[in-house]
Amino acid sequence: MPRNLSRTPRLRLLVQATVLCLYGLNAHAAKPAACLPGSDQCPRKSDDFSLCKPNALLAFYVPGLPTSGVREQAETDFSADRFQSADTTKYVLQGKARIQRLDQLIQSDELTYWTETTAWLATGNVRYQDSSMLLSASKAQGKTTPSTAVLDDARFQMLTSRGNGSAAQAELLDDEHAHMKMVRFSTCDPDQPSWEIRAKDLNIDQAEGIARGHDVTLRVGDVPVLWLPYARFPTDDRRQSGFLYPSFGFNGNSGLDFTLPYYFNLAENYDLTLFPRLVTQRGFMAGAEFRYLTDSSRGQIDGSWMSNDRRAERERGAWHWDNFTSISSNWNFTANINGVSDKRYFEDFGDSLSSVATSLLPSSAYLNGRGRGWSASIGGDKYQITDPTLSDQFEPYRRLPRATFEGDFGLLGSLRGGVKSEFVAFDKDCFTIDGTRTCPTTGQRLDLYPYLSLPMEGASWFLRPEFGVRHTRYDVQTELADGSRRKASPDRTTPISSLDMGLVFERDANLFGKSYTQTLEPRLFYLYVPYRNQDQLPLFDAQLLSFDFPQLFTTNRYTGADRQMDANNLTAAVTTRLLESATGTERLSASLGQIRYFDDQRVQLYGAPTRYSGSDYVAELDVHLNDRWRLRVADQWDPNNDRTDLSAISVQRKFLGDGVLNLSYRYRRDFLEQTDISALIPLNDKWRLIGRWNYSLRDRKPLETLFGVERDSCCVVWRLLARHYLRDASGEANDALYFEMELKGLGAIGQKTGDFLRRGILGYQ
Length: 765
Hints:
Elements: H1 2-6, H2 11-23, E1 77-79, E2 82-87, E3 90-101, E4 104-114, E5 119-129, E6 133-143, E7 148-158, E8 164-174, E9 177-186, E10 195-205, E11 210-220, E12 223-234, E13 242-243, E14 247-251, E15 255-259, E16 262-267, E17 270-274, E18 277-279, E19 283-293, E20 297-309, E21 314-326, E22 331-340, H3 345-349, H4 353-356, E23 360-371, E24 374-385, E25 398-412, E26 415-427, E27 431-433, E28 436-438, E29 442-453, E30 456-457, E31 461-479, E32 485-488, E33 491-503, E34 505-511, E35 514-529, E36 567-580, E37 586-597, E38 617-623, E39 629-638, E40 643-655, E41 659-668, E42 672-682, E43 687-696, E44 701-712, E45 716-726, E46 733-743, E47 747-750, H5 754-760
Antiparallel strand pairs: 1-3, 2-3, 3-4, 4-5, 5-6, 6-7, 7-8, 8-9, 9-10, 10-11, 11-12, 13-16, 14-15, 14-46, 15-18, 16-17, 17-19, 18-19, 19-20, 20-21, 21-22, 22-23, 23-24, 24-25, 25-26, 26-29, 27-28, 29-31, 30-31, 31-32, 31-33, 33-35, 34-35, 35-36, 36-37, 37-38, 38-39, 39-40, 40-41, 41-42, ...
């Protein structure tokens, strides 16, 4: 008799089926085959239910049930006020009937069991508990052979995760199939359900991992926001095809923007998501995303297409392919291919200042190799202009093919030898300027830089001499006005010598009652590169690098190999750091440096040689004395003209838990001068204000203004944001309104705002 009674209530399987199917009604139906970096479908961190009441809300919860051991091997304990058995076919437990097997506890006022039919009946305040859930019912009955059960007026409460609900009747047909009527589920407090899912009936198939419901309604408060006559969704981690949550927003440039994604579970290692999108002022846009994951490859292909933009009166679209393929332990293939239909695509369909500010859209594909002391690649790059203010003449050259090889090997003792090399073929289409067709110079370039180095260092010093020779050769051709082509093979050979040396001093310091280690790190870098006339060399990819502190210690101030600067320079710099002795955390870092020129800088991209005795003074400061305050300063002062070339200051203050205030100022001479204020202000545990004001002092107008409000509760988060931002480089602005509501444990409805809030407000949580 005890053996049969221990198998009597198969309620746990029934409750698991109930909770899994309802808890899986969200985008779990579209769990991805491969969680790729940056994918919107990747699992995110758990929802925050800290504002909720304790999960165990049913009054019969019994704390302290044992959890160690194997339930199937544990003994079953029975107890009741009265135990009756007229014969061996019927047993009755009355008055606080209790059956416990390890963490599994069943209680009722009366429990009856018939041995011949294996039927059982539990009446009067039926209660079930284990380590993961609670369940109550007014009555429960069934059989152990076959395993069936019917529960009336069932309520359940999860213990290991959020989730509670009820069913008018729940029927367990066998170990893997169940049927329920009038079902409700929510992650909210049971007495205050801000949202819940209701279904008229629900059929659960655990073997297939599928639940099917009729008359399914999602209610927020007392308002039904989504109704489906029929719904099919998973009960476990097995992926299923289905709709994902919609997103919607509004902006003055395009009107209402609504997207309803649909996910296809094609196979275990690849999937497809369709993104039908309605933009009311422009038309219908079809989008798709295909992702794949194999033993050697992972990637994503996505695109969007609008057959006719009513406002632009043309076809619009964009596409993207991202891929990584491992060929061997040393070789892999990467691709990042991008394209848009026209220069104004990001203006009209981009939703952030960063996308609007994209002037060049890069694409690349490479076969990469790496081993001990060497690296190599072969592939190509191209760019597409996405700024309507730029003409085609400013499109960078295509670099196809492009091959690189770098090696660094030990020779004798500390002596090392290495080489840096690159071969590139440059190509560019002809363009028209003021009615005149112009064809740029094209050709090939080989750049070789073999070198020898002798690095020496100790605990408090380093000395790194290096000598190399840079040889660059071209095979180029230029189309003349008469259609003929002129070919040339210019070259340049330049020796490069450098000596990098530095010291590290340390001392103990006690500040603000804490123990620190302070360092003083002086550094000298001497560079000698004799002048070579390079006016005959073409300009394929040479650009002047931004001048900053690391640039004080480089051998060339230009990108690419078209120009190699001449130098007879000495860099003097010093850095001091403040390290927390207990943790090693860097609390302060300050650096100052300058290059002293012993000869004129004769190699220039444009203009005459510069005849200054020294570069700008470059200073950097980062102060982070505690977890609430942070100060960063970068400044470049030109002593030759007594003026500031660059200045950047930012202050961050954290307060009231998640609160943060950012103040910053950015200045670059003859280019920009901006202020940026952003804040997240908690008013209490539930309400937060969000704001950003990015203003151009140079243009005397705002670049982006953002204001919003966010409310958090036990199971619902919603935010309303209003934005005014520049949508093109000419300064035309756009207004947008975003609303997002997140039902914790279920998903988000509306325009996703988290990404651009994290980009726009440093420290946003």
